[in-house]
Here is the input.
Amino acid sequence: MSPRIRQRMSPRMWQQNLLTPLPGDPPLRRWTTRALGAGLAVGAYLLCLPWDLRNRPETPGAINETSPVTALGIAALTVAMLSLAAYFGYRDRLGWALLLVAGPPATLMYVSFNSHPAPDAAVWPLAWGFFVLVMGAGVLAVAGFARLFRASEEASR
Here is the structure.
């Protein structure tokens, strides 16, 4: 095996490729990484939250309602989204981090709310707007914080 191929296959080289800024990468690798990140955000949302987000009666005929969303699902989605935000904040521009990490879950939440019409007054647009604002702010905060580490690393070179 040639030294050049051996160098490409080394763990250190893989680590460097996974943490280099995306705007400097070739277009195919850059867009593949972005598509994979958006796919991971979609997968995290679909795994952690139920499709129908409406409240349901606890038992048939009961007045009290319960939410199908669990605290564990919300915590898992939060960890997954903030991890993706940190990764893309470190590697890419802030706008891309916001679009790739918060965009797919916001779209899925909109489709979910819109596809299950409520029999009562529909307050889902307000809920959707609030959750999108919270997701976007969290992603931007974590991505911006992660970006600070990239700047200090580049300055030390």
Observations:
- The longest strand covers residues 56-57.
- The chain has seven helices and two strands.
